[in-house]
Structure formats: structure tokens, C-alpha cells
Amino acid sequence: MNATSLTAGGFPEEGVRARARRGAAEVFPPAGAYGTGLFGAGHGSGPATAATAAATVPDELDALRLVPPVFMPRRLEKLIELGREPGHGDVDLRTGVGGFASELPLYLSAFGSTRAGSGDLAVAAARQAGRLGIPMVVGENMVPVHGYRSVLLARVEAYTEAAAEGVGGVVVQQSTEDADSEVWNLLYSDPASRALRDSGRLGFELKIGQGAKPGLGGMTVVGAAEAERLAAACRFTLGEELGADGGRLRCATPGTFTEEIVRQQLRFMRNNFPLARTWVKFHPGRDIGAATGTAWAAGADAVTVDGAEGGTGWAPRVFLDGVGLPLAACLGLIDRPEGASLLASGRMWEGGRAVRALALGATAVGLGRAALLAVDEDPEHGLERLTEALALELRLLISALGQYRPSALSRADLWPPAAAADAGSTAVPVGPRR
Amino acid sequence: MEHAHTPTPPPLGEHLRSPRLRSAMLVQQEALYATREFLRGEGFIELLPPLVGPVTDPGGRGAKALDVDYYGQPYKLMTSAILYKQASLSGFPKLFYIAPNVRVEPPETAGTGRHLVEFHQIDVEMAGASRQDVQEIAAGLLARVVEHVWTAVPDVLRELGRSESEFDELRAGKFETCTHEEAVARLAALGHAQSPDAEIDWEAERILSLDAGCPFFVNDYPKGSRGFYDREDPARPGVLRNFDLIAHGGYGELVSGSEREADYATIVTRMRESGENPAKYAWYLELAREGLSPSAGFGMGLQRLVRFLTGLDALWQVSAYPKLPGVIAP
Q: Which terms are listed as keywords in the entry (chain B) (predicted)?
């Protein structure tokens, strides 16, 4: 508006000028992108070129190389079992995921109540996840925002109709505002979910955080009418930060957690919903090792860690690139007990990244943005085809490593190995493990 | 427990005309008479509880509250009047309600014989009391009710198949006590796996109840199995200063009670531990900031009490207008 010829080489001049023009609205991505854009690492406050580059430049997890050994005693075991040379088709991808049987070491990550994640695409994704026989997580704030008889039930029903007997499961998150709406109570006794519950395929996930905005609650952009409705119900904080044209910012509270609060909330879940599986989702916090240990000790069937690369429908830019531990660092800090389920998410879409996460200790990996993009490409079969490609890569890679089950992968399959990280010879943040 | 019965209620008209319901109501009437007489004699004053409020007891084991639209605000039908009992102590240090409650229990509890969506409880609270104090009140109340009904309507009870001798130990004042930990161990010995972190499950409770010859208290439930208002034992973190009173003969739990948390910061923290949003409880927390009286109290399920007295199989048989979980009824 009043731009002069003043310049500041080496200083983020453009960023400052944008803030001078738009004020607090500039803290967020452009409001016009809400509902159509999916955000995550690379969409932050850095220079535009970095955002573009982030899509292709590997992060710490991608930087690890998968290193097949020459000598493969497990392949010999498989050869003896089969009476012929094993191939990649002999890799058995079926596994247990948080108390459910799953056809693949995958699950459909939570989409929250943002516009991108709570419409028809979410229902299409649910139907395909059911067909695939992988667990599905339904995100927070669906009931207080959209009502109970809404997309939440539509997703549960779409999944249930498509699911084969005995595999998969539906996990529903509850956060602070959801607790006001008694989401878990509603579902637990609803005839619509009873078949899932009675067959041991219903779970509840305590949502403690997410990778794209660690320490914050859910955020969406709402129009004037919805803002008025939510304000009247006293459900959420509504802010004006998005400016005159950008709608209102709706903030859920992040919730307050201590070790004892996590332990007791999990006990409450197990006490009150004995037939449901108990999951917990953490953001990539610096105390993730202690947090996951607490959750498992309190009886969680699965612990999910969403790395800082995780996606979202809306978040402040500064969080996207600069807040939370990268997934590789998280996995390095987690000491998973034998038999426990550790689920990892954050930019998962192909087999290489998934196998690296599995080798670092994850039991299964979650598809979030990838799943939404896939159903956007083809609502009928997009996710199934994406998963077909991913599963083939998993088989090829796991077989190449001389293994035949995802659970057999270990840090020895990665280079640099954990010991190298300890010695400080590499920046790969893979910490010590038991 | 051996009466022939239909497993679910007949049409309401038929149910209301049945001699069995008439007998049960005669017993209930005498039980209520004796309750009021006993509690008033102990210095308690009867208040009438509210029916709706911005918040109610958070419930548990899949039970949920019903929402009502209160001038545009989401209000709840009371699942328990516990918070109002605590609030009332400043003016009424010894109080009781005969409180109607609505809990939308999960449908699978329809067959336990021990769950109704609408029920009443004899709700007692006493300022400055310990667990021991209110256990004595609960035991005294039960003994007095039993004494009274066997005096007032013995023929009704006999016609229902009850034998006076089944209440001998109770009338002699015999009540036993064990801890939750001991109950879990006893169940393990009886071949029933019971989580040490959780509420005693329905089947476990039936097993313990069948195995007993007199009513017994189970003390010290683990935190995580009960609401935020049950006081945590300061000397034993993770253990609550609470109790259940379980009847003998397979009739199960009659009473739940505890010492209460009265400290504001502790209440807020305990709310978070039970997954609750403290903002929902604003009115109650405001009173807690001003200072709640330390107290102890309990709720005795009225229909469960009448079922125990009459020996009938299911709570719907002792309720004039029964609503079984998951069953649409008038």
C-alpha cells in the first residue's frame, strides 16, 4: 500500500511486509485454502521455495537407507518352511494393530472436523478402509460440530457395511469438547455400532495431540452462521484473527495432561468401556518416551505418535515447520515393550517410508493426507489402489531385507544404524533402545 | 430367586394389575416409611433433589445422561444428585433425598436384572463424616428397613417366597468388610478374572454376592473406577476412601458411597483425570472455590433394595413403570 524502496537483504522482508498488510491473519495459511488445502511440514513460515522443496526433499526418516544384508537366516527358515525359494509374494503383511486383526500394517488416520476431513471424502475413505480390512480412526470434534447423527455415524456405517468379518476395527477419538458431548458413551451403547463393539472391533482413542500442531487443540475456519451457533453452545473459543474476509477461527482446547491424568483417563476408559479397545494419540513431544511408557503401563492397546511432519486441515504456519519432534526422533525415544502396539503417522504414502518407520519400532503406519488425496482422485477405489501399490512395495522391501513379516524388521535394517547416531557421527536422531 | 417370571415386562396395563407388583409396592412403601423414620431419627433432613441441571454425575460403564433443551442451553436429566448433595451441606449438614435418576444404560444391561433406565435412590450425605460413619448409617438403615418390613408386611414377603431366616444375620447386625484388592483375589480364587484397576464387573459382583451369607462392604476401589468426587486416600495414592455395600444371596450391590473430595484444586485435577471438562461444572466449582464441606455419603438403590427384600428376580418387577435399558417403553 505505502511500499517504499526500502529493502532488507538477508532478512525475511516479504514475511514482514505480508504481516504488515494482513496482521494476525498472516499467522495462518490463506483462508481461501481452507477446506481444499491439506497442510503439514513444508507449509510453514519459511521462504516459498522451501515449501515447494519440502515435498521432495527427504526428512530425517526418509534419509535413512534400507540396507539388506547378504546373509539371511530368516530366508533360509522360510525356504525350509516352503520347500522352495521364497519370493516377495511370501511376505505376510497381516498383523495385529492395537488389538484388531489387520490385513496390512496400516490404518486410516484420524481426520478431524475440518471441512477437508469431515465430508464425503471421509465417508469414501471409510468404505475403502473397511474393504481393505485395516483399522480406521475417526477424529475429534465431529459430534460437537456436526452432531452425532452426522458424518461420524455415516463413516462408521460405511466402514461396517464394507468390512469383512474378523478384520479391521473403528476407533473414535474423544477430546475435551467431545467429552462434553459424551461421544464415547453415545457410541458404546448405539445399536449402529453394536456389531463392531460385540465383535471386538470398536475402539476409543484418547486424543492428546497431533503432529501438525503440537500443544494446540483442533482448529477450523467457520463462517458467521456456524460461529454464532458454536458460540451459543459455548463449545469453542472463536477468534477474529483471520481478518474481515477470512471467516472466524474456531479453537478447541488442547486439554491438560500430566502423567497421572493420562494414567487415570486410560483406566477410566477401560473401566467404562470394557469391550472397546483403548488407544492414545500423542503429538511429537519432547517427553514422548515417558508419555508412551505411561500409556502402555496403564493398559493402552495402542499408542499412536504423530510426527511433526503430520498433516492437518488447518494450523498456524509457525507450527508446521518449527514445532515438535520429527517422527524419526520420536521413534528413537520410544521404548516399545514386547507385544505392545506402536502406531506412527506423518507423511506416510509409500512403502519405503513405512518400512523405515516399522524398522524403527512402529507396528503399523497411518495414512492421513495420502488417503484423502487418494479418495479425492477416485472416491470409489483410489485408496484401495494407493494401498495396493504401497503393499507391493512393503512386500518387495521386507523380502529384500530377508524378512517375511513386518514385525521382524529392526534397526539393523537401517543405515546409519542406531549406534552411529549415539557416536555423533550422523545427524540422524535415532536414540538408544532397549 | 426361584420365581417363575417373564424375562421382560408385559404391557404396562397388565404389569400394573399384577398381584406381584402390588406386593412389591406394599414392600416399597414400608421400606420408604422405615427409611424416612430412621434417617430423620438420626438427625437427617429430607430435601427434594433437582431434576435437571447444566451438569450431572458423569456416569460410568457406558451409561449416559439425557440432554434436555433448557431455554436454549444443553441441560442434563440427573443421573445422580451427588453434586447437589455436596452443595447443600453448607445449609443442611445432614441431608437425604429420595432421588429419581435417569441413566441411559447400555442395552446389554437389560438382562442383568439389576438395571433400569429410570430408578430412585436413597441419597444420604453427612458433613464432617468419615467412611466409617456413613457405613454405620448405611448398615443401620438397611437393618431398620429389614426389621420394619418383616414387622409390617410379613405375609406379603412370605407369599413372595421370602423366608425370615434369610435375614437373620443381617438383623443381628452382621456386616462384613473386605477391600477391593481382597475381593479381586477372592474372585481369582473362584476362577473369575477381575481387573484390579476397574469397577467389579456384573458377573463378579453376582459371584461374590452368591458366595456371601450376610451383606458386606467392599472398600478402597482404585482411582479410575469411580467419579472425581470420591476422595483419594492421602496416605495411599490411587486408592479411594469409598465403598460399596453388596447384599448376600446374589442380589448384588445395594449401595455406593464414599468420603468426598472437597478441595477445589483436587476436584479440578480429578475431573481431568476422569476425562471431564471442568468448564462444564462451573457452578459447582464456584461453590468449591468458596469452600465445600468435607463430607461422606452414599446412595442406596431403592429398587435394588426392594428386589432384595422381596426376592424377585429383576428390577422391572419392583418398578411400577419399568424402563429396561435399550427397550422402548411408556
A: Aminoacyl-tRNA synthetase, ATP-binding, Ligase, Nucleotide-binding, Protein biosynthesis
